[in-house]
Design a protein that fits this description.
By secondary structure, the protein is of the alpha+beta class. Helix content is about 45%, strand content about 25%. The strands form 3 sheets. Strands 2, 4, 5, 7 and 8 form a 5-stranded antiparallel sheet that branches. A 4-stranded antiparallel sheet has the order 1-9-3-6.
């Protein structure tokens, strides 16, 4: 998290203040470690801090534009991936019918601390850092909304992956060249179904578009299917090469949009 404290206070926070908060949480039974994909029993009105690991936020809504909602539709709620909260970051959940948010541990051994907002009165400088962190998250969500507003699915996909890796990505290097950064990758796996729910697409379409982005060298996967953005190569692609890639993506996107529209029509018929 970004800090607006003085240099002395900046040094104090990671080594002293944070440890005091952890000790306080343990004394008041306000901390817990979660396994991968375990639901975090978070509720509105509380502040949560991720000490270790990663938290996955998902949203759901009991709304439907179907003309004749069926009983199965009433009972089944589709969850949409809303983003990650990494170590050292805060989060809170809101509740407003018919919308609801849930939090899950996205990595094993995810450690979460929770408290009431007035508990931050004990650490005024840390309270300011928490507010700065929420302001940063708000700014990132505006970028996310801008990405999701793109017409083409492939633009939403690439923009979504770019924003995620910009925020949480870790550098990866070549096996024979440890000093050469090949690009940046997500430290956790993300399924095509989760990506599809985030960008308003289907798993099948995401899988096909991911293959197209890989074939053009715009993304790649490393190790355990971790999604990566390669570093910009030098010399950079010429304008003609870039135009060829964009034209190719345009052609494929048109056909993929037709496939997705057809699939959506089938869903509505069901």
């Amino acid at each position: 998290m970004q800090s607006t404290s003085t240099p002395l206070e900046t040094i104090d926070r990671p080594f002293i203040t944070w440890q005091r908060i952890i000790d306080w949480a343990q004394e008041h039974y306000r901390c817990r470690t979660f396994s991968k994909d375990e639901r975090i029993p978070a509720r509105p009105g509380l502040l949560y801090l991720v000490q270790k690991g990663s938290v996955r936020l998902v949203g759901s809504a009991q709304v439907s534009a179907a003309a004749k909602p069926s009983k199965s539709t009433d009972k089944t709620t589709e969850e949409a991936f809303l983003g990650f909260v990494g170590a050292g970051q805060p989060f809170e959940l809101v509740a407003q019918s018919p919308f609801s948010l849930q939090a899950y541990a996205h990595a094993d051994q995810t450690h979460v601390v929770w408290m009431y907002w007035h508990d931050l009165d004990n650490w005024p400088h840390f309270r300011r850092e928490i507010l700065d962190a929420f302001r940063y998250q708000h700014q990132r969500k505006l970028l996310w909304l801008s990405t999701l507003g793109q017409r083409r699915t492939i633009d939403r996909l690439l923009g979504f992956l770019t924003l995620l890796i910009e925020e949480f990505g870790e550098p990866y290097v070549g096996e024979g060249e440890p000093d050469l950064v090949r690009g940046y990758r997500l430290p956790w796996t993300l399924t095509h179904a989760q990506i599809g729910s985030a960008i308003g697409s289907t798993r099948v379409t995401v899988t096909r578009l991911m293959g197209k982005l890989r074939s053009k060298g715009l993304i790649n996967t490393e190790d355990d299917n971790l999604i990566c953005l390669p570093a910009k190569s030098t010399p950079q692609k010429t304008k003609n090469q870039k135009q060829e890639i964009e034209d190719s993506l345009d052609d494929d996107e048109d056909s993929l949009d037709d496939d997705e529209d057809f699939m959506n029509e089938e869903d509505s018929l069901e």
